[in-house]
């Protein structure tokens, strides 16, 4: 990969990020409104208290002043303070990030591994009962809205069978540490993780299947077979690595989206991650939190897109030379 | 599935199974404190009693901080709290409280009159948002450790009630004014029945019984407030016994939940209401007409507003738009205590009667002169089409609008609806750019704040910031203002109630703020683990999230609490272990099975 190719991609991403930073500020200010009035509706605040709150929220200048202040703050990697909690947005996001990363990380791993495996099996025996079964299954899960699937799994496993807790990340009455704490958290992780994994695996399976079917038309596979290679070897060594290319892109792009897209699943399972933080910030409305969260979400999508571009170029020489 | 993959899957299942069993083991090993778990829906914003605004904040403070005087569970009557007695002098301008002996904070430090005086004086001088409406005119002194003297600069009918949360001086004096609002207030030092033990953001708040509580240590060892972002899951958790009580039961599940054996559902009234507000701004107080909108001219006419009032079938709205939840209303309820709400005599009520509405409109000259079904302004003026603002943030708003607009159409009044979120609507109201909307209020225990919203000085006039006003009917009545000022300094309770009734009857007759229903808090609790739930006020109020939350300290466990998850955990653990072993031992299909004939279509692709 030439340095020129890499720097081009990196600068492209930085440009997008810069646009997002500017857009982010104005997006949440399109709707006219006074956060002080909304948050403190019904309180008989004195004028002095209102002014103090406006100052505390950084609303006492013109839009342009506020924008400049926002840029300067961002330059210092400071995302401001939450209107609601008055804690720094950075600390609020950092606290909510780990549950989401755990949830999304594990579920993405599961959905890619299982989804890709299903895609390979289905494509390799195209038209077989196995293919029909798998394709029907993956199409069904792909079509299922994740909040619906989440409720269904919650009702079956937590309510009817009662095997798993109804929500949250840990048992509030437990003071456990070490392995017992991990066991408790694992138990809480199973359902949300399963929901996301099942909701996303269909996409990987379908893309992998069609990609592999395309690859299987290639001459070099006929050659590989003609050489007398075993079927499994042809699949493993010659077909799958080439067919994986679009899936790699999809994984990278999806990872960025899933980070923000887990909102519904986090809400269903009361999972205290970034999705839940977004929901709470919209409800308030907590502009600094929303700005911070959208910046993180956009940055993650941009970052993983960049990663996909670079990975693609690394895996497929045609991309970097074209 | 290849052998390697099968081993991985089996191992995963095994790990899950072991994790579940380990969880059970952990549960079995821990001691079993008597735990009350309450499900709620919106996380704490801050634990700082000076600034938090959410209902959960107040629930935590009610448990953590005792007040100088308490309120009776049944009727909000002022009863002894940290102070056991009090007397007034100087025509009610000075109140002297005697505190109980040997009071202690939960950390063992003595709790004295100095803590009370410190809280009142600092809240006044530093302008603590949640305290100033109570302490703005009061100076406190502590002549000895058990005596607090309050001097008020104006007659204050709320006294001797002193319900601000007393904070520990030894903790708060270390926090400077500058860093005050950033103080997270998770010190866990309190004087109420429970104090903060552990808070995990986005998950739960755990509070433990305070051994130094002046009323004695509660029978419940710990209270857990568990956050649910999914209302249905909260209902499931209650049915399953993962939680003992829940706040904000979704209206859709409320009726069915009431039929479940062992669960009691509550429609807890705390004075909350929803109203149809009419923009009745009629030029007072004067404001810059180039910057503010104006209501439809017909709304300035009392007869027109009365006709609208006659066109609203509140019982039908409650039954059909509100799923039968709530009570059809007449007068505005200004306080949690129903004694402040006047009964409107039948002769003065605007009971649903479309015929009467039409007659009133005809008599007032609003005739349909162009024959299009919509009445016109007098003298062949324009069609009367009212701008009706629907709230996107309330599930009741749109169905209610369907009913109201169709009744208005029946009497010949046109409407044009548009949907707004609450932030936008606050702006629209401030700007006066609306004719009708339905929204609600939840008042405090004292009627003063709610009454103050409808004074002339709360009609928006400052175009630079029109959202700092609360009079969302834009109603200005000098007589109402005079009565407001009078009740504010009336120390005789019965007389003050009479003045408030007079104000609200006047407001009702003006027909600019039609109260549709008294909206309750929907709650539910299980009856199998605790007894002693208290409704505040008695018979009509909620059992939790009430004004002083007296239930918690009053609850007694029926039997020792058990971990309801344990048997399920065992079942789940065993299931996953079995699944794992099944996968591990399942025989691999023969190689022939793998080498199936290639399907015809695939063959053609070579």
What does this entry look like structurally?
The complex is a heterodimer of chains A (322) and B (606). Chain A has helices spanning 3-27, 35-39, 47-56, 63-75, 89-124, 129-143, 146-160, 178-215, 219-226, 231-261, 263-268, 274-283, 287-315, 317-321. With 322 residues, chain A is mainly α. Chain B has a seven-stranded mixed sheet, with helices on both faces. A six-stranded mixed sheet of chain B has the order 14-18-13-17-15-16. Chain B is an alpha+beta fold and 606 residues long. In chain B, a hairpin with a 2-residue loop joins strand 6 and strand 7 (147-152). In chain B, helix 1 runs antiparallel to helix 17 (565-585). Chain B has helices at residues 3-29, 55-64, 113-126, 132-135, 169-172, 231-240, 251-258, 302-310, 314-321, 354-363, 397-410, 422-431, 448-452, 478-488, 493-510, 551-554, 565-585, 591-594, 600-603, and strands at 35-40, 69-71, 78-80, 83-89, 94-99, 138-144, 147-152, 194-200, 204-209, 222-227, 245-247, 263-268, 273-278, 327-328, 385-391, 414-420, 436-441, 513-518, 521-526, 530-531, 556-557. The chains are: A mainly alpha (322), B alpha+beta (606). The interface between A and B is large, with 79 and 80 residues.
Question: What is the strand and helix layout of this fold?
Answer:
The complex is a heterodimer of chains A (322) and B (606).
Chain A: H1 3-27, H2 35-39, H3 47-56, H4 63-75, H5 89-124, H6 129-143, H7 146-160, H8 178-215, H9 219-226, H10 231-261, H11 263-268, H12 274-283, H13 287-315, H14 317-321
Helix pairs in contact in A: 1-13, 5-6, 5-8, 5-10, 5-12, 5-13, 6-8, 7-8, 8-10, 9-10, 10-13, 12-13
Chain B: H1 3-29, E1 35-40, H2 55-64, E2 69-71, E3 78-80, E4 83-89, E5 94-99, H3 113-126, H4 132-135, E6 138-144, E7 147-152, H5 169-172, E8 194-200, E9 204-209, E10 222-227, H6 231-240, E11 245-247, H7 251-258, E12 263-268, E13 273-278, H8 302-310, H9 314-321, E14 327-328, H10 354-363, E15 385-391, H11 397-410, E16 414-420, H12 422-431, E17 436-441, H13 448-452, H14 478-488, H15 493-510, E18 513-518, E19 521-526, E20 530-531, H16 551-554, E21 556-557, H17 565-585, H18 591-594, H19 600-603
Parallel strand pairs in B: 1-10, 1-11, 15-16, 15-17
Antiparallel strand pairs in B: 2-3, 4-5, 5-7, 6-7, 8-9, 9-10, 11-19, 12-19, 13-17, 13-18, 14-18, 20-21
Helix pairs in contact in B: 1-17, 8-10, 14-15
């Amino acid at each position: 990969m030439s340095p020129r190719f890499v720097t081009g991609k990196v600068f492209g991403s930085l440009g997008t990020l810069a646009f997002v930073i500017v857009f982010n500020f104005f997006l949440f200010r399109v709707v006219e409104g006074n956060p002080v009035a909304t948050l403190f509706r019904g309180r008989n605040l004195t004028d002095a208290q209102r002014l103090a709150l406006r100052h505390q929220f950084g609303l006492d200048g013109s839009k342009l002043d506020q924008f400049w202040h926002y840029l300067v703050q961002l330059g210092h990697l400071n995302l401001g303070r939450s209107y609601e909690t008055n804690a720094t947005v950075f600390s609020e996001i950092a606290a909510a990030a780990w549950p989401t990363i755990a949830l999304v990380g594990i579920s993405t791993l599961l959905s890619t591994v299982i989804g890709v495996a299903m895609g390979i099996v289905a494509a390799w025996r195209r038209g077989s009962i196995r293919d029909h079964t798998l394709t029907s299954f993956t199409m069904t899960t792909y079509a299922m809205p994740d909040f619906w699937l989440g409720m269904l799994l919650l009702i079956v496993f937590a309510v009817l069978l009662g095997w798993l807790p109804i929500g949250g990340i840990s048992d509030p009455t437990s003071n456990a540490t070490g392995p017992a704490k991990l066991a408790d958290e694992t138990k809480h992780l199973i359902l949300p993780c399963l929901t996301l994994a099942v909701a996303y695996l269909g996409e990987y399976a379908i893309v992998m299947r069609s990609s592999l079917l395309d690859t299987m038309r290639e001459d070099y596979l006929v050659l590989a077979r003609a050489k007398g290679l075993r079927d499994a070897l042809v699949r493993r060594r010659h077909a799958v690595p080439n067919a994986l290319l679009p899936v790699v892109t999809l994984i990278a792009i999806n990872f960025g989206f899933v980070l923000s897209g887990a909102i519904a699943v986090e809400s269903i399972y009361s999972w205290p991650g970034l999705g839940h933080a977004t929901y709470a910030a919209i409800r308030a409305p907590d502009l600094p939190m929303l700005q911070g969260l959208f910046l993180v979400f956009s940055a993650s999508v941009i970052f993983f897109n960049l990663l996909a571009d670079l990975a693609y170029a690394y895996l497929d020489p045609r991309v970097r030379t074209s | 599935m290849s052998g390697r993959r099968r081993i991985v899957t089996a191992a995963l299942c095994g790990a899950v199974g072991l994790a579940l069993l380990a969880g059970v083991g952990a549960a079995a090993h821990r001691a079993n404190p008597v735990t009350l778990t309450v499900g709620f829906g919106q996380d704490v914003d801050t634990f700082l009693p000076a600034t938090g605004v959410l209902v959960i904040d107040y629930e935590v403070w009610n448990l953590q901080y005792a007040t100088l005087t308490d309120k009776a569970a049944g009727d909000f009557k002022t009863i002894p709290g940290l102070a056991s007695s009090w007397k007034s002098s100087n025509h009610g301008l000075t109140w002297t409280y005697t505190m109980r002996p040997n009071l202690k904070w939960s950390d063992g430090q003595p709790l004295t009159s100095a803590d009370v005086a410190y809280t009142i004086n600092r809240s006044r001088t530093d302008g603590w948002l949640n305290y100033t409406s109570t302490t703005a005119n009061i100076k406190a002194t502590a002549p000895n450790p058990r005596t607090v003297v309050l001097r008020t600069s104006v007659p204050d009918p709320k006294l001797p009630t002193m319900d601000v949360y007393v904070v520990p001086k030894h903790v708060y004096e270390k926090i400077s004014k500058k860093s005050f609002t950033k103080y997270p207030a998770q010190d866990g030092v309190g004087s109420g029945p429970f104090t903060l033990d552990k808070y995990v953001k986005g998950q739960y708040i755990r509070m433990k019984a305070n051994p130094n509580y002046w009323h004695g240590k509660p029978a419940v060892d710990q209270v857990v407030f568990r956050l649910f972002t999914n209302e249905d899951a909260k209902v499931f958790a209650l049915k399953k016994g993962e939680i003992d009580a829940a706040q904000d039961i979704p209206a859709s599940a409320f009726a069915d939940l009431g039929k479940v054996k062992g669960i009691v559902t509550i429609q807890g009234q705390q004075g909350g209401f929803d109203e149809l507000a009419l923009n009745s701004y009629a030029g007072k107080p004067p404001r810059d007409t180039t910057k503010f909108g104006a209501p439809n001219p017909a709304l300035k006419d009392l007869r027109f507003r009365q006709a609208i009032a006659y066109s609203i079938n509140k019982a039908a709205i409650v039954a059909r738009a509100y799923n039968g939840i709530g009570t059809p209303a007449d007068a505005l309820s200004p306080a949690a205590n129903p004694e402040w709400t006047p009964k409107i005599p039948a002769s003065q009520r605007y009971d649903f009667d479309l015929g009467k509405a039409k007659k009133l409109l005809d008599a007032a000259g609003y005739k349909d002169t162009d024959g299009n079904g919509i009445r016109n302004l007098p003298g062949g003026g324009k069609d009367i089409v009212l701008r009706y603002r629907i709230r996107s943030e309330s599930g009741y708003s749109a169905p209610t609008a369907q009913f109201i607009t169709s009744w208005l159409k029946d009497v010949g009044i046109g409407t044009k609806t548009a949907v707004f979120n609450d932030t936008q609507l606050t702006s629209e109201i401030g700007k006066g750019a609306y004719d009708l909307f339905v929204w609600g209020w939840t008042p405090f225990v004292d009627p003063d704040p709610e009454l103050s919203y409808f004074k002339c000085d709360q009609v928006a006039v400052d175009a630079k910031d029109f959202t700092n006003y609360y009079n969302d009917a834009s109603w200005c009545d000098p007589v109402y203002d005079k009565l407001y000022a009078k009740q504010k300094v009336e120390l005789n309770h019965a007389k003050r109630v009479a003045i408030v009734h007079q104000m609200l009857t006047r407001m009702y007759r003006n027909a600019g703020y039609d109260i549709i229903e008294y909206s309750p808090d929907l709650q539910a609790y299980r009856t199998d683990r605790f007894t002693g739930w208290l409704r505040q006020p008695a018979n009509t109020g909620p059992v939790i999230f009430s004004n002083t939350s007296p239930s918690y300290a009053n609850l007694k466990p029926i039997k020792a609490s058990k971990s309801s998850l344990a048997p399920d955990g065992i079942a789940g653990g065993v299931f996953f272990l079995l699944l794992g072993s099944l996968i591990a031992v399942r025989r691999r299909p023969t190689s022939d099975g793998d080498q199936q004939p290639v399907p015809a279509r695939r063959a053609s692709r070579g």
